[in-house]
């Protein structure tokens, strides 16, 4: 292995934070933290949900102002009063939740605010589209710059966000959980992109909850816990267990709950289910106490099947039976009434209202259900949600906290708790631990196992092979809108999953 040219101790970082503090009402998000980024090197910032990682990103990009401490560029103290100032200083970021515009094209989203212009100030569409195409190609994204964003799926939108960050020529590139929404191939392209950026001498800040990728692409690590700096060093000089212990402050076992599934009565049967464009020939059943995994590459149609079951989109054919009775689910309200709920992957758009406090988000599903016991049920759901958020390891000052002010991972936990609190018969969890830190992940898995043991029927859509294999009693693999395989017992191995998903 080549020796590293610099160490955190002896080189001058391109960009550094020194004793930076940031407080919000009731929360110290950052407490005198330090961080250094070096040219041509990747620094991984790791920490639990709510540790302060995204807050650092927002300070480095001029979205938040620090309450104390210093930001330095090449050793000189500086300030970023606005995002524009951070961009001018050569800093660009792929945020955890990027704001893009559905009604604008891919190219317009990439260049919004810094479109190439002609002499008289008019936007130069030809140049803009050509450059957009070049950037998209450089990250392996096969997207037409003229497509309207609303026509794209979540993974493609994320690629547009990445292209947007790369459209400014920057010295520092920040990536806040860039692979969370991407498929295997796209993740691979992103790793190659990181290598390219390193070779160009850019300093990279990389935030991720996935340890395999931290060890694969990062040179340095910095660990935060509860808004405080706890350590830094070379990735080559630490192992995963030590890093996790630094992060969480205790040992965490990565083992999945040891469960003895007690499979009960059939609760759901889906027959010859099809959609005009997204999927066809879907046939499966689901029983009480069972966890049924849905594995596949992003775009295989898994979420589309689930959204149809929840009444969000309209199938073109097929039957659904719940408890042996034929049902028609034309809307989410129908599905909820029939005891089937869906926790979406894209919590920002479909799962929650960020401007409302946690407790109102939690009771949302029960509003509008106007049975006589509606009010009592709401009170009961609120109590359950309080209990469930605790079980899922939610870190929030109180249930009055506005959802949008929680860290990304903690928002995800609220959305899961909210739907579980409706006490459904069937719950569909779409990528349930995406964006959730390693310690809380174990809490989510243990809780899922416990609810299944109480008779809940669970469908878990997941792209993480260890999670699929560790949690499921049975797995359906989807490819290009169809079921490629149904696996159980000894047939559930990483190789068979990958083979069926890729069609080899
Ligand atoms: N605008 C805000 N108002 C109030 N509190 C905030 C705001 N932004 C962040 N916080 C709080 O600051 C703390 C750090 O949040 P941050 O988003 O930086 O965490 P994170 O490390 O990115 O977590 P995750 O892994 O879940 O994304 C959390 O307690 C969060 O609730
Ligand atoms: Mg974050």
Q: Give the CA-CA distance, first to last residue.
A: 34 Å
* Overall number of structural domains: 2
User: Whole-number average pLDDT?
Assistant: 87
How many β-strands, per DSSP?
20
User: CATH H-level name of the largest domain... which superfamily?
Assistant: P-loop containing nucleotide triphosphate hydrolases
In the CATH hierarchy, the architecture of the largest domain is: 3-Layer(aba) Sandwich
Radius of gyration: 23 Å
Bound molecules: adenosine-5'-triphosphate, magnesium ion
Tell me, what is the CATH class of the largest domain?
Answer: Alpha Beta
User: What would you call the shape?
Assistant: globular
Question: DSSP helix count?
Answer: 17
At CATH level 3, the topology of the largest domain is Rossmann fold
Strand order of the largest sheet: 6-7-8-3-9-10
Strand content: 15-25%
Low-confidence stretches: 1-6
Main beta sheet, described?
6 strands, mixed
């Amino acid at each position: 292995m080549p020796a590293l040219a610099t160490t955190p101790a002896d080189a001058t970082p391109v960009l550094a934070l020194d004793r930076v503090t940031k407080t919000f009402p009731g929360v110290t998000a950052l407490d005198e933290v330090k961080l250094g980024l070096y040219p041509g090197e990747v620094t991984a910032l790791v920490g639990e949900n709510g540790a302060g990682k995204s807050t650092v990103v927002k300070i480095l990009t001029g979205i938040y102002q620090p309450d104390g401490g210093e930001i330095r560029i090449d050793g000189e103290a500086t300030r970023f009063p606005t995002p524009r100032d951070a961009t001018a200083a050569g800093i660009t970021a792929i945020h955890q939740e990027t704001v893009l515009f559905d009604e604008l094209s891919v190219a317009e989203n990439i260049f919004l605010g810094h479109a190439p212009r002609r002499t008289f100030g008019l936007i130069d569409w030809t140049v803009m589209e050509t450059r957009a195409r070049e950037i998209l190609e450089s990250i392996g994204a096969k997207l037409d710059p003229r497509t309207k964003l609303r026509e794209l799926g979540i993974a493609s939108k994320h690629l547009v966000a990445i292209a947007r960050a790369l459209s400014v020529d920057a010295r520092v590139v920040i990536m806040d959980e860039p692979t969370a929404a991407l498929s295997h191939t796209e993740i691979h392209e992103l790793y190659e992109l990181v290598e390219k950026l390193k070779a160009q001498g850019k300093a990279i800040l990389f935030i991720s909850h996935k340890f395999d990728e931290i060890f694969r692409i990062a040179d340095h690590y910095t660990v935060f816990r509860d808004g405080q700096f706890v350590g830094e060093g070379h990735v080559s000089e630490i192992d995963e267990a030590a890093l996790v212990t630094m992060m969480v402050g205790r040992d965490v076992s990565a083992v999945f709950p040891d469960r003895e599934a007690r499979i009960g009565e059939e609760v759901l049967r889906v027959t010859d289910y099809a959609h005009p464009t997204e999927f066809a020939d879907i046939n499966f059943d689901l029983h009480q106490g069972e966890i049924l995994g849905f594995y596949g590459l992003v775009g295989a149609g898994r979420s589309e099947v689930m959204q149809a079951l929840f009444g969000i989109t309209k199938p073109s054919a097929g039957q659904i039976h719940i408890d042996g009775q034929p049902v028609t689910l034309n809307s989410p309200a129908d599905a909820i009434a029939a005891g089937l709920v869906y926790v979406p992957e894209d919590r920002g758009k479909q799962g929650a209202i960020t401007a409302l406090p946690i407790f109102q988000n939690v009771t949302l599903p029960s509003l509008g259900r106007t049975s006589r016991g509606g009010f009592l049920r709401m009170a009961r759901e609120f109590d359950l949600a309080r209990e469930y958020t605790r079980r899922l390891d939610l870190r929030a000052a109180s249930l009055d906290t506005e959802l949008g002010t929680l860290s990304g991972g903690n928002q995800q936990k609220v959305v899961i708790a909210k739907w579980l609190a409706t006490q459904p018969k069937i719950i569909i969890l779409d990528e349930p631990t995406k964006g959730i830190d390693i310690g809380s992940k174990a809490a989510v898995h243990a809780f899922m196992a416990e609810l299944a043991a109480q008779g809940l029927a669970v469908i878990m859509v997941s792209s993480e092979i260890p999670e699929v294999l560790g949690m499921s009693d049975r797995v359906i693999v989807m490819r290009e809108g169809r079921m490629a395989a149904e696996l159980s017992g000894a047939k559930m191995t990483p190789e068979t999953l990958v083979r069926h998903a890729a069609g080899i």
